[in-house]
Amino acid sequence: KHFSFLPASMYTEIQRERPDGGNILTHPDYIDGNPDLIKPKKLLNPVKASKSHQELHRELLMNHKRGFSMESKPELQRVLEHRRRNQLIRQKKEEEEAKKLQSPFEKELLKRHQRLDQLEKEQEKQEDHEPEFIKVKENLRRTSTVAGDEKAA
């Protein structure tokens, strides 16, 4: 034949000319119908043969027919996640409102309270560094003044 096509289309032309359709695979001998040969049987897949796999496959088919998506979560899990999410959002809003509602007076009180705590901690540290006899002497003075006040009354 005469090919007047481009080289890319020559391949398709050659494929059309093949009478067997371009099938390179050989046919097996048992198709010939020879009764002496034993015909092979297809091996069973142990996974597909198992009951659990069959039940799972059946359930997937039923869900697909009903229109359920397997990617979606169970209803209980969705509700619980929704509640957790709402609770976190509520907590964040409450914290933001608490920060906004703090008046300048409350802020100042908080600062003073923090300063007093720091001063108390510093005094405790200084008292720890004092010698033992000074601590005992101060305790004796306190007890003597307390006892004197009780006698006077």
From TrEMBL:
Region (Disordered): 66-153
Comp. bias regions, Basic and acidic residues: 91-141
Protein's UniProt keywords contain Nucleus: yes
GO molecular function: actin binding
GO CC terms of this entry: focal adhesion; neuron projection; nucleus; plasma membrane; stress fiber; synapse
InterPro entries: FAM107 (IPR009533)
Pfam families the UniProt entry points to: DUF1151
Domain of life: Eukaryota
Signal peptide: none
One annotated GO biological process: actin filament polymerization
Keywords assigned by UniProt, alphabetized: Actin-binding, Cell cycle, Cell junction, Cell membrane, Cell projection, Coiled coil, Cytoplasm, Cytoskeleton, Growth regulation, Membrane, Nucleus, Stress response, Synapse
UniProt subcellular location: Cell junction, Focal adhesion; Cell membrane; Cell projection; Cytoplasm, Cytoskeleton, Stress fiber
Function comment: Stress-inducible actin-binding protein that plays a role in synaptic and cognitive functions by modulating actin filamentous (F-actin) dynamics. Mediates polymerization of globular actin to F-actin. Also binds to, stabilizes and bundles F-actin. Involved in synaptic function by regulating neurite outgrowth in an actin-dependent manner and for the acquisition of hippocampus-dependent cognitive function, such as learning and long-term memory.
Stated name of the protein: Actin-associated protein FAM107A
Source organism (scientific name): Eubucco bourcierii (red-headed barbet)
Encoding gene, per UniProt annotation: Fam107a
